[in-house]
Design a protein that fits this description.
about 325 residues, alpha/beta, ornithine cyclodeaminase, domain 1, Rossmann fold, 8-stranded mixed sheet, 8-stranded parallel sheet, 16 strands
């Protein structure tokens, strides 16, 4: 079995390659060539810590099977200066079930999330994207912006975060990395009203802006909230938008961004236009009008992670990366 650290995964995985493999995984899912049970999740009482177990078997072009464990400890992590979420993925041989690799999935999942949002942006955002507004200044926010810039020629970006130092650091580092001007901003309404693409990538559990501020033609990638009682976009945003999910059944089970408007009676499940894989596979249309508001909601899918891990494993074998363990 091959053991791959986070550093190993970072050395192998690029945004463009991740976009390509995630797009294949989404297409296979839409075409019915993926087995993926609902993940099992439990929360530790009185701590807010969450553990999630997810698995998938991806057929077709990918041909991979795997299982991952995610552990989120936001409070303890801040105190101990550790990542808020740890992920570990076990990749198995599709024919024999033998373990092929165990790898850190924390960076892998962040890249997969950014790549999925990039694909959604390619399908749903207008061709001309001048300004991106991103809520959040952490690792996920950085990779989300990388994804958007991989599929659109972005003129500039604005970052909003309660931590002024984090905002400035994000703006300085990402403007150099992406070679675009990035400014910090505190006026939420002004930022939203001028945005062509909005990304929500924070730990917030309440809406970050008001849907009435959205201008025609804007696209929103809502990737930050993954709990039934948490949301980062409000009911008005959802009601005004053409809604696309990574997988509707998963989002209806896990995403407060959609569950709460349904509970309020503002929308029904039929308000969801399509799963992203259906658009990728050509089964449903993406953007159809320059003025329509589009919203992509994702909670993350094991099929995407397993497909990405399979790509990492193949590269690692070819390049001699990682440590072989006699399991």
């Amino acid at each position: 079995m091959l053991f791959l650290t986070r550093q190993d995964v970072e050395s192998l995985l690029t945004m463009q390659a991740t976009i390509s493999i995630v797009e294949i995984a989404l297409r296979e899912l839409a075409l019915g060539r993926v087995l993926m049970p609902q993940p099992a999740t439990f929360r530790l009482p009185d701590r807010g810590n969450v553990h999630r177990f997810a698995s998938a078997c991806v057929g077709g072009e990918v041909g991979a099977m795997g299982f991952q464990v995610l552990s989120s400890h936001p409070g303890d992590s801040q105190e101990r200066h550790l990542p808020a979420t740890f992920g570990t993925l076990l990749l198995n041989d599709l024919d024999t079930g033998a373990p092929l690799a165990m790898m850190d999935a924390t960076f892998l999942r962040a890249m997969r999330s950014g790549a999925t949002s990039a694909i959604a942006t390619g399908c749903l955002a207008r061709k001309e994207v001048h300004e991106v507004v991103i809520f959040g200044a952490g690792t996920h926010a950085r990779i989300q912006l990388m994804g958007v810039c991989a599929v659109r020629d972005v003129n500039g970006a604005f970052v909003l975060d309660p931590d002024a130092q984090a905002r400035r650091r994000f703006a300085d580092q990402m403007s150099k990395a992406l070679d675009i001007p990035i400014e910090t901003v505190a006026d939420v309404r002004a930022a939203v009203e001028m945005a062509d693409v909005i990304v929500t990538a924070t730990r917030a559990s309440q809406p970050l802006f008001r849907g009435e501020w959205l201008r025609p033609g804007v696209h929103v990638n809502a990737v930050g909230a993954h709990a039934p009682d948490a949301r980062q976009v409000d009911t008005q945003t959802v009601r005004r938008a053409k809604v696309v999910t990574d997988l509707s059944s998963a989002c209806l089970a896990q995403a407060g961004d959609l569950r709460l408007p349904i509970q309020e009676g503002a929308i029904t499940e039929e308000h969801i236009h399509a799963d992203l894989g259906q658009i990728v596979a050509g089964l449903k249309p993406g953007r159809e009008d320059e003025d329509e508001i589009t919203l992509f909601k994702s909670v993350g899918l094991a099929a995407q992670d397993v497909a990405t891990a399979s790509h990492v494993y193949d590269l690692a074998l070819r390049r001699g990366v990682g440590k072989k363990i006699d399991f």
